[in-house]
Amino acid sequence: MIKFFKKFAFNTEGAITVDWVVLTAAVVGLGFGVVGMLLSGNSALGQKLSESMQDAKVQELVLH
């Protein structure tokens, strides 16, 4: 049994595949995080812009 665990611990076959799976999962996770932040930030910005435009006064442009 100990021989099996030693052989398993030092076996590097498939290690690159595992690295790519972990790296891909990290990139996807970060992507979801960025999308979540952008969506919530855009809503707040849109609300502030809407309030600002409602309070704005429109003036006539006079050209001489």
From TrEMBL:
Keywords in UniProt for this one? Membrane, Transmembrane, Transmembrane helix
Answer whether the UniProt record assigns the keyword Transmembrane helix to this protein: yes
> What are the transmembrane regions?
20-39
Origin superkingdom: Bacteria
- Transmembrane helix keyword on record: yes
Protein name per UniProt: Pilus assembly protein
Its source organism is Roseovarius halotolerans
